TrEMBL record:
Name of this protein: Phosphoenolpyruvate synthase
Reaction catalyzed: pyruvate + ATP + H2O = phosphoenolpyruvate + AMP + phosphate + 2 H(+)
Cofactor(s) listed: Mg(2+)
Lineage of producing organism: Bacteria, Bacillati, Bacillota, Bacilli, Bacillales
UniProt domain PEP-utilising enzyme mobile: residue ranges: 378-448
GO biological process: gluconeogenesis
Pfam families per UniProt: PEP-utilizers, PEP-utilizers_C, PPDK_N
Record-listed E.C. numbers: 2.7.9.2
């Protein structure tokens, strides 16, 4: 029996002490004892909380309050929660506890030899690290606390935070005994940080265990953890600590110590640190190196990928680790890190490009120019071409990987490869020159590198396969683990057959069904050509068959079918297309989308598309099928197209929704007018970015130079305007471009702006759902805290 039952110094703590000091406290002890630089401190043990509750007879009183509670009654829950928290805050703590805290604090101050000691007081719940009871974020942290009276007060606030409405609700729902969960308070020296953030020792986006991801911003790390700023992002190669990718963010705010009151305050970077720092790279090369080295050590200590909070002290420039916990969302990877590093040093890289669809594939190079050469591609080949087009899809499906000279992350090759789970590198510039016919290569499309020869990772599955196919157990888990989110998480799909592969993913519907895949694979011919030959029934049957397959599979979840959006050059590739399609100089901004539907040269073809939709809804009763109109430019064309649709029996009403894509800037500027004509918008961020920035989405040059970027402030401003305008008219806003599948911080921005749903690639559904849930949770918590 220790002399001090209520206090443990970090040095005295080990990982088995969770019941005493909670998950966070145990981790800090483990880190310090493992030689990691952690700000010093002590824990007020969970026994202090439970003795306080028991000896002051609060348990009986609290139970009475909770037992009579209907937790679904939000108002009642809030009142009871406030009452319990107030009770804890206003009841004196036990004398022995207070004495021990005072003694520890005084000793701590003497050891550190500082007069004005600032500490952080953090909650460390004893059930925190139970996977089935992820309490992360449900208890509070208080920063920049000074003086023993404030410390004691904030320890009590930590105790009280076990009784927030959310925590009570959660425990009731999970059938936890309220008093089985206890709480220790961590008192730790405050790092006066000039920069801080988080680090994941395994890339959480690509799940690549050979990479780390660092997020960094100015001031205290709370700005990053709370999602207040979009931090800089650095992807680091773990074999040599080299940065392989970085995104320097616009960091408008930072959190600093409040000089006028207890705690912290948010200030503008521009005013506090100077304008330059808003866009300046936060971390130096040597800081990244040191951080990476420490992170690897921690990962080794725990023998699993870690999510680490860190800070760099402004006075001493020293790096501190504030917290480390396992990344639970990653899957197992058997790759031996050392073997991997050795293998990497022997690799000869031939080419680099943009990683457009993650995964690795190796095989023989097959270069193709156009449809006449697609038969050259055999199963497992590496398809190399200037740029893919719909004609090449049969060859793409056989390929182990695709590499193109041109294109960005939203080009045809990128979209189709992600749909099929084929590793793909685009915008390599000169793949067709560097790679020779029949050459054996390995395409690492997670890093965007083509290596010489067939390398070990050949057997590695692509990301899609790992996510979806590897085992039934995993599929069930994806569903079971999927958090419920307010923002709907939809999935993009094109190829109807793939629904069986993806149907176990945790999505709420299909937010974009690209019918072009049906045109290419099921119909195979141009609708106007079929009409000319009296074969229109074939079109209606095939198109309705493709849509039915998906709609039936996911019923009653909605499926938003986007009607044809081929450009004229792509329509020409369909059978009979050459006879009926014009040659345009700029098809990307030419006769596409609604402009086509309402012109005499295609109207009849469009009517066939409408009849296919009607057939699915009427004959199969699949009323979960809605429609979406692409490349809308004007309100008058929407009025006209709606007339045609109504004539075909597709009248907009409660049961049948018509959305338009917001991908031409005119829709943003006139969003309120459009909102009165339609049920919803889906942001086509691929085209919208292209048109706002005047940056060809297929230009490899502009893409690699960073011009094409959905995160550009002008694009974000447009999206913000649209969401606000649509919501004024109670219309829903979704997004179906590649942006949220590529950049988590972009998804976070969308949620903060109040988007109603996001529609993403199948390979990011599970991750995005978790991200959406955590951002929503943070928003709710911030709101609750500000009440
Ligand atoms: C878009 O433009 O963002 C979009 C989803 O449509 P597509 O990529 O098919 O043009
Ligand atoms: Mg588009």
């Amino acid at each position: 029996m220790t002399k001090q039952p209520y206090i443990r110094l970090f040095e005295e703590i080990h990982k088995e002490d969770i019941p005493l000091v909670g998950g966070k406290g145990a981790n800090l002890g483990e880190l310090i004892n493992g030689g990691v630089k952690v700000p010093p401190g002590f824990c007020v043990t969970a026994k202090a909380y439970s003795d306080f509750i028991a000896e002051r007879n609060l348990d009986k009183y609290i139970l009475e309050l909770v037992n009579g509670l209907d937790i679904e009654n939000h108002e009642q829950l809030q009142i009871i929660s406030a009452e319990i928290r107030n009770l804890i805050l206003t009841t004196d703590i036990l004398e022995p506890i207070e004495m021990e805290i005072r003694k520890a604090y005084a000793q701590f101050q003497r050891n550190l030899q500082v007069d004005d000691l600032y500490v952080a007081v953090r909650s460390s719940a004893t059930a925190e690290d139970l996977p089935e009871a992820s309490f992360a974020g449900q208890q509070d942290t208080y920063l920049e606390i000074e003086g023993i009276a404030e410390v004691i007060h904030h320890i009590k606030k930590c105790w009280a935070s076990l009784w927030t409405a959310r925590a009570i609700y959660y425990r009731e729902k999970q059938y936890f005994d309220h008093f089985d969960v206890s709480l220790s308070a961590v008192v730790q020296k405050m790092v006066n940080s000039k920069k801080a953030g988080v680090l994941f020792t395994s890339n959480p986006i690509t799940e690549d265990h050979n990479q780390m991801m660092i997020n960094a911003s100015w001031g205290l790390g709370e700005s990053v953890v709370s999602g207040m700023v979009s931090p800089d992002e650095y992807i680091v190669d773990k074999s040599n600590n080299q940065v392989i990718e970085k995104h320097i963010a616009t960091k408008n705010f930072l959190i600093v110590k409040n000089e006028k009151a207890v705690g912290t305050t948010k200030v503008a970077v521009k005013e506090f640190l100077g304008e330059d720092l808003v866009t300046e790279q936060c971390l130096t090369e040597s800081e990244i190196d040191q951080l990476s080295t420490d992170a690897l050590r921690i990962e080794k200590l725990y023998n699993s990928p870690q999510d680490i909070e860190w800070a760099i002290d402004s006075d001493t420039d020293e790096l501190y680790i504030l917290q480390a916990r396992p990344i639970t969302t990653l899957k197992e990877e058997e790759t031996n890190v050392i073997e991997q590093a050795q293998a990497e040093s022997n690799r000869v890289s031939l080419l680099r490009g943009l990683a457009a669809s993650p995964g690795t594939g190796s095989g023989k190079v097959r270069k193709i120019k156009d449809i006449t050469e697609i038969s050259k591609v055999e199963d497992g080949d590496i398809l190399v071409t200037i740029m893919t087009n719909p004609d090449m899809m049969p060859a793409m499906k056989k390929a182990a990987a695709v590499v193109t000279n041109e294109g960005g992350r939203t080009c045809h090759a990128a979209i189709v490869s992600r749909e099929f789970g084929i590793p793909c590198i685009v915008g390599s510039n000169n793949a067709t020159e560097v790679l020779t016919e029949g050459m054996e290569v390995t395409v690492d499309a997670t890093r965007g590198v083509v290596y010489q020869g067939i390398l070990e990772e050949k057997q590695e599955e692509t990301k899609n396969d790992r996510n979806v196919e590897s085992s039934g157990i995993e599929q069930i888990n994806l569903h079971q683990l999927a958090p419920i989110t307010g923002t709907k998480v939809y999935m993009n799909l094109g190829e109807p057959d793939l629904i069986s592969k993806y149907s176990n993913l945790p999505f709420d519907g299909i937010g974009l069904m690209r019918t072009e895949f049906i045109f290419t694979h099921l119909v195979g011919a141009h609708p106007m050509y079929l009409l000319r030959n009296g074969e229109e029934k074939q079109f209606i049957d095939k198109m309705s068959e493709g849509i039915t397959k998906v709609a039936q599979d996911i019923y009653p979840k909605p499926i938003v079918v986007r009607l044809s959006d081929f450009r004229s050059n792509e329509f020409r590739g369909l059978k009979g297309g050459e006879e009926v399609e014009p040659i345009e100089a700029n098809p990307m901004i030419g006769w596409r989308g609604v402009s086509r539907y309402i012109s005499p040269e295609y109207e009849e073809g469009f009517r066939l598309e409408c009849r296919a939709i009607k057939k699915v809804r009427d004959e199969y009763g699949l009323v979960n099928v809605w429609t979406m109109l692409p490349f809308v430019r004007t309100t008058w064309e929407v009025e006209r197209v709606k007339e045609i649709m109504a004539e075909e029996g597709l009248k907009q009403d409660q049961q049948f929704k018509i959305w338009i894509m917001a991908e031409v800037p005119s829709v943003i500027f006139q969003a309120e007018e459009f909102a009165q004509l339609v049920d919803g918008f889906s942001i086509g961020s691929n085209d919208l970015t292209q048109l706002i920035l005047g940056s060809d989405r297929d230009s490899g040059i502009l893409n690699t130079m960073g011009y094409f970027d959905e995160r550009n402030p002008a694009v974000k401003q447009a999206i913000k305007m649209l969401i606000h305008a649509a919501h004024k008219h109670d219309k829903t806003v979704s997004i179906c471009g590649q942006g949220p599948s590529l950049y988590p911080e972009f998804t976070e921005f969308l949620i903060r702006e109040g988007i109603d749903s996001v529609s993403i690639n199948p390979d990011t559904v599970a991750d995005t759902r978790r991200l959406v849930a955590s951002v929503e949770q943070r928003l709710i918590l911030n709101k609750l805290r500000s009440i």
